Amino acid sequence: MHASGGLAHCFEKGDDGKLTDRFVIEPITANSLECMANGAKTCFKHVYSLTLEEAAARNKGAFPPEFADGVFCENYDLRVDSCARTWMRPHPMENLLDLVPLGQLKSNFNYNLDDKRVLNFENVVNDDDNIKQDLSIDVYGRKEKEEEAQAAAAPAKQEEEDEMDSLLAM
Q1: Taking 60 as the threshold, does the pLDDT of residue 135 lie above it?
Q2: Using CA atoms, how far apart are residues 70 and 25, in angstroms rounded to an integer?
Q3: Which helix (H) or strand (E) holds 90?
Q4: β-bridge partners, 8
Q5: Which residues, in sequence order, are bridge partners of residue 23?
Q6: 50, 82, 74, 76: CA torsion to nearest 10
Q7: Contacts of residue 113, Cβ cutoff 8 Å, sequence gap at least 6
Q8: How many CB atoms are located within 10 Å of the residue 39 CB?
Q9: For residue 162, what pLDDT is reported?
Q10: Alpha-carbon distance 26 to 46, whole Å?
Q11: Sequence-separated (6 or more) residues with CB below 8 Å from residue 161
Q12: How far apart are alpha carbons 115 and 101 in whole angstroms?
């Protein structure tokens, strides 16, 4: 069974707030590799194709020397199995195996670090992040619809009140 692994250039935020380089060995799904081959930006410096057994063994010796500085990603075993399943589908089997042939290294993808992957980033959401939708910035036209509904209801309401007054006067 086929598997592909990549060396991702990531970052870790230190206690001082500075980013430090961190290279991570990650399995790559068939659709991700197809996107990379079509020119999508990626943080993967290198991609290597190997068998599922080699990838699952967590042996850096199975990877080329370019991967020596990398550490295996979190949940590596689960991710290897999941990624290997994406290679079993008909489209990848017929069209994508030649992108990085078995046992070969490829490094000519659109490597780009504009959008940095920070490994230890925590997104803490609180109530201050919520935006109150004020009618003054109403992009859905709710205020106009509300005013139209009130204007249409006003004559009917007046008629109803007049009718009630006439009934009570009797």
Answers
A1: no
A2: 6
A3: helix 90-91
A4: 24, 44
A5: 9
A6: -40
A7: 9, 43
A8: 9
A9: 79
A10: 11
A11: none
A12: 28
Q: Give the position of tokens 């990650």.
A: 26
pLDDT tens, 24-59? 999 999 999 999 999 999 999 999 999 999 999 999
Q: How far is CA 25 from CA 77, 160, 165, in A?
A: 12, 75, 82
pLDDT of residue 153: 74
Give the C-alpha separation, 96 to 33, whole Å: 8
Instruction: Report residue 131's pLDDT band, with 50, 70 and 90 as the boundaries.
Output: low
The CA distances from residue 48 to 3, 85, 128, in Å, are 9, 17, 44
* Token representation of residue 32: 């991700």
Weakest-pLDDT range from 115-119, 123-127, 133-137: 133-137
Q: Considering the entire predicted model, what is its pTM?
A: 0.69
Which residue has 């209801």 as its token pair? 153
The token pair at 15 is 């206690």
Handedness of CA 160, 166, 169, 170 (dihedral sign): negative
